[in-house]
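REQUEST FORM: STRUCTURE PREDICTION
Request ID: SP-0412
Submitted by: Lab K.M.
Chain count: 1
Length (residues): 169
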Amino acid sequence: MPLTLYEITIPVFTRALTQVSAILQKASDHASSTKVPPSQLVETKLAPDMRGLPFQIQTLSDTAKFVAVRVAGIEPVPMEDTETTFEELQTRVKRTIELLEGVEKTSMDGKEDEEVVLKRFGDIKFTAKEYVLGLALPNFWFHVVTAYDILRHAGVPLVKLDYLGPPPA
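STATUS: Completed
RESULT:
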């Protein structure tokens, strides 16, 4: 049986968001044990012209959420981009996971060729399959790995398995 858009997005996003939550917890624990102000870790950037950790978490959250909205057809759930602490970032991740867990497994069936229009970028049109494979998944992973890299760069003792997590069941 061929893979579905649901199978290559929602469970993948949920699993990665669970790892992002664990990485954020490890960073928070690191701040506590080393007396590094948590705000110092949260505000870290990889380069002066790059956005920090909150933006990475907000964007990976939005990317996962918008696949559910644009392809599965769920109602948009507003999430303000105001997170500035580990606790607030964790809440954002948990809310995103909860939203994804509510997506029906069959909600994307047969929608591979349906049109998805991104108005933010000047009405760019994709098929749902093109949107998922060519934009959403690469964008999601970019921000996941950037969040990991920011915290690793800031001294949080992360390792590859923190990013990968346990083998999928």
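NOTES: The chain has a mean pLDDT of 95.
Reviewed by: T.R.
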